[in-house]
Amino acid sequence: MRPAQQSLLKKVASKLGEPPSYADEGAKGSILTLTAAIYGSMPVDEDVTRPTGFDPEAAALFEAVVESAYLVAQADGSFDAEEREAFQHVVISACEGAVAVRQVTALLADLQDQLTEDGIDKRIRMVARAIARPEHALEVLRVAALLAYASGGVSESERDVLGKLAAEFRLDQGALATVLEEVQRALLE
After folding, report:
1. Mapping DSSP to helix (H, G, I), strand (E, B) and coil, where does residue 46 land?
2. How far is CA 179 from the centre of its chain?
3. 3-class state of residue 154 by DSSP
4. Measured on CA atoms in the order 60, 64, 65, 67, is the torsion positive or negative?
5. Are the beta carbons of 187 and 149 closer than 8 angstroms?
6. Are 64 and 131 a contacting pair, CB within 8 Å?
7. 9 CB-side CA count, 13 A
8. What is the pLDDT of residues 44-103, one digit of tens each?
9. pLDDT in tens, 15-39
10. For residue 188, what are the contacts with CB-CB under 8 A and spacing of at least 6?
């Protein structure tokens, strides 16, 4: 990996861990990092009892956040091994150890299977089912856009998927424009 790309990935991972500029004052992290702790506590073995205090809705929200970014990454029809490695590295780095490599690897494999089986439009609808609050929807779009920038910016096909996500979240295109501006500003800092 080239040093410039490593630097960009590091910056994206850092921004993924921070709350957006429009978050409430005192926010401690992004939706990705906050839900990662719950997801990371989920037992890998189905036969193991879930820990006390485990929140399946938060775990589902983490999966939806990662899936939204994954769908955007898949928008151009190409998600090669290098892109997959960069995507996984950025997610794991942003989660600051709360989620194990094996968990993210397994999640990405599941997401690929679901995308192949269902197609992108159905997967977008499924992601939207896990997003109940408008502020979560904005944050999901921000995370997906940040990860799109990690691969060289938001292409037209990626912007199209972001637009479909925004529509499914019942956000207007102005909200998407705001999110994209936020991401651009954050990466220029």
Report:
1. coil
2. 14
3. coil
4. positive
5. yes
6. yes
7. 19
8. 555 444 455 556 787 889 999 999 999 999 998 878 888 888 889 888 988 888 899 999
9. 878 887 777 787 787 888 888 877 8
10. none
Give me Rg for the CA atoms of the chain: 15
Q: Which helix (H) or strand (E) holds 187?
A: helix 173-188
Q: Angle 156-168/56-73 helices, nearest 10 degrees?
A: 150
- Look up residue 182 and give its two tokens: 């936020």
Domains of the chain and CATH, by start: 3-188 (1.10.3680)
Distances (CA, A) of 28 to 24, 108, 133, 140, 143: 10, 26, 18, 16, 16
> Tokens standing for 145?
């856009």
Q: Look up residue 115 and give its amino acid.
A: L
Give residues with Cβ within 8 angstroms of 157, minimum separation 6.
75, 76, 77
Q: Which token pair is 40?
A: 């990371």
Site of tokens 């780095």: 93
Dist CA 180 CA 141 (whole Å)? 8
